[in-house]
Structure formats: structure tokens, C-alpha cells
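To: structure desk
From: M.T.
Subject: fold request, one chain
Message: Could you run this one when you get a chance? Sequence is below, nothing fancy, just the single chain.
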Amino acid sequence: MVENGETHLDPPLSLVIASAAIRACFPDVRAAGLVHLGSGWDFDAFLTTDGWVFRFPRRAECAATLDTERRLLDLVAQVLPPSVAVPAVELDGQPGDAFPYKFTGHRFIRGVAADTVASTVFSVTARSIGKALGAIHGVPESDARAAGIREMDVDDPGRQRWLDDRIVAASALRCIDPVVDRAVDWVRDNARRPPAAFPRPLRLTHDDLSPEHLLVDPETGELVGILDWSDAILGDPARDFAPLVAWHRWAFADQVLRNYPHAIDSGFQERLRFTARVLSVLWLAEACEWTPDAADDIARHVRWVHNVFA
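Reply: Done. C-alpha cells follow.
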């Protein structure tokens, strides 16, 4: 939501409303005891006691992406290793009195966030992520376009305004610690001067690989699921490696790259360094702005900045 030129994260959908919407559309689903799994910029997610995950769009434009996301999920399910699941939409909730937009349900995919696994299985996690990214980035550009995935427009005025706003917000991060101060200075001086663009053909990228979207078997370290494909674009594969640097440092990203089946171009590392640095600072700024009382979340994003700028 935007008010007076400022961006705010809307509060999550209430359990009462979500339960009512589920009961109205799916009376056989156990909506009692519903659990709030999490909320992002575009969706709220809830888990029922009988193992259904329902995703509720936060705005009308988010609901409009559901059909494209389903086509994409069907596409990537065909190329990912069989051991790596993606949400398979089975339930389509229709707008009603309880909730104004379409919403969807898929079976719960069991696993833990990829940044919580023990260091003893890091190499397994890196290997399985590398193979999965290879499969995703190997989807032909024509197939991704046919599914409705669009090319990232780096010159889009709205994206430029968002970047300018985030850089301004980052200035409020000063005095957290010297590393963050140095990172803020770097972003202020460099964020508007990106490296040379990725050479075509463009790659299908997930573009939001936070650790919560990469589910891992905690015992083996194997990747078992990839969630939340609503931000997928055609663009630079380096963008999918930037979050890995933030939450597991450069050595982990290097391990993933060693298991990545595609050749990387000569400018890949420069673009990865640029993207990881910019995004780590902007993510911290958003955490401070949108969840100022969530000390653990802010501390995590401070750690991410340290990891990237190490």
C-alpha cells in the first residue's frame, strides 16, 4: 500500500477471514485450527490441520498473477529433479463475501528453511540447489514466455522510483555498525550504476530465493521444495545466486556454482557482487521500515549485509 508517497506493508489477513473464506469454498477442508504460515508483499499463507496451504492475494493485481504462476509451476515441475517439489495447485477458491479475490490451495511441502541446516550437510544442500537452479535456468526462453513470464525491464520508471526510494530509506541504517555504514555508502554511490547487462538468451529465474522459499530435508541437507514463484522473470541468472551469498556467504555460493551445469559468462561474478550488495542493504532497509519491532528479523538482515560485504 502507498500513502503520501510512502510504501507500507499491509497487515496480514486475519485468521477469522481466512477461515471463513476456506469454509465457504471448501466445506470438506478442516479450516478450524488454521495456522498463519507467513506474509509477503503479495500473499498471505495459511496451513490447515489436514495439510492444505492456502495463499491469499493481498491486492487485485496479485490475484491476476495466479493463472500465470500455475502455468509456470506446471512448466518447472517437468524439469526439476523428481525429489524437488513445487506447489501443485489443486484447490481454486473463488471471490465471495468473506474474501474479494481468487485464492489457491496446494498440499503442504514438508522441509525446513535452507539457512537452518547443519553445517555438516552444507555441501549436499549446495549440490542440490546447484542442480535445481541449472534445471530452472535451462528452461527455454520461448517456453517461459509462452507460460506468461515477462522480461525484467531495468528501465521501467516504477522500478527506478522504487530503487530511489529504497536508497533513501537505506540512509536511516547508519550507526547500526561500521560494516552497515560502509555498505550504505557503497549502495548510495553505486546502486544507480549497474554493470553491463546479462547477454542473451535470457534465463528463467525464480528471483526471490529467500531461505524460506528453499525447503531442505534437515537430516540429509537435500533440497526438497521450492516455494513462491510469483516474482519469476526472464533475466539474469546471477540474481538467483545473490540471496545465497546473503544467507550463507560467498563460499556457499561458490559451492552451488561448482554444481551448476551451465557455463557462466565473463561478467557473471561482477553482476553477482553488485546485485548481492545492493539487495542485502535494501532488504535490511525494508526489514527496519516494515517490521521495526521484529528484532530477530532485523538482526538476521544485518548478518546478511555482513556476509555480502565480507
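Reply (cont.): The domain at 112-309 is CATH 3.90.1200.10 (Aminoglycoside 3'-phosphotransferase; Chain: A, domain 2). Let me know if you need anything else for the meeting.
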